[in-house]
Amino acid sequence: MAYENPRIEKTFTFPVPNEWRSTEFTSGKTSTWTYRGPRFLTFEIDKTNGRETGWCLTTERELEKPCPLNSVRITVDAMESDELALVCEIANDCGDPAAVEFRATREWKILHEAPAGYNHTWYTDQVEPRDIYDEFTISYDFETGKFNLPVKGWENEGRVDITWDDVKELRNKFLADTDGKISDDMPESIQQKWRDYRQLLRDLPTALAHLPPFQAAKMFPTGPEYKAKAPNIDPGVVRDGA
After folding, report:
1. In whole angstroms, what is the distance from residue 222 CA to residue 19 CA?
2. In a domain, 220, yes or no
3. 57 with 144, same domain?
């Protein structure tokens, strides 16, 4: 009998952290999402550490391949529970058109409002499971028989142990990169942009002193040579390497 793995839709409820990029769930917040993909996902799990050894298997041809040594295959049914539907959603991004549309059109809000000339940091209330759970570090607990979905904290967007000395070092690098950018044959308006940018860099430790340094590092001013990104890019991503 041929292996059957129909594409299904399963709407499920999942927990949402207290705040954007928080790893605490004590507020009891939840949201809903619809998984659209293969009903069954088969994971190849390392017997030693419980980590995935490759991509999920969904087709008969994939399942016919030998299982890697020291690994075991565990099959999940997305229809069985909300918990397993969440596992399937995180483990298997199928490029669902509805999910792509959601990511491109949802509203982003200011998390930390920056002084004039600096970049805000952003968050969204319209979350999906992949905003919260890290698809690259899924593991399986052989004792409980359940999957672990690590939560994305601020460290997923950069170092959280950064200090003001680190911020100032980065600021100094950007200042050094502006050396020689102004020349007398430039239009005055362009020269002024570079002078303004350099002043913003100098003022940054004072202007953003009320913020944790790892947040200030995401709010560096945009240089005159910066080119706009393609539309619908997550505005929470830091620009200019800051």
Report:
1. 27
2. yes
3. yes
